[in-house]
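Researcher: Predict the fold of Thioredoxin.
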Amino acid sequence: MAIHHAKDSNFKEMVQAEGITVVNFWASWCGPCRMFAPVLEEFEKEAEDSIKVIKINVDENPVTSSQFQIMSIPATLIFRDGKPLYKELGILPKDALRQLVASK
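Model: Structure tokens for Thioredoxin follow.
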């Protein structure tokens, strides 16, 4: 499976999947977001089909960003069965991301 890119118009539908969904809020001008991107890609490849990974650009999707009170990026939210469980700001090492997902 690949990383999915959400928009305000389809975000709610995309996170409604059963199981764990990791959502990354980012922007193209954000240096830390660019540094986190390869970590997220590696995490997604290792997770295979067990975890859905979604990226959403805060500049292009202000409604969703506001809904989840995203004030700093990168921001990572973990959803289970469509419900937000956890929010982490900043770059996460792959092992830390793996541990967060396992604990939810």
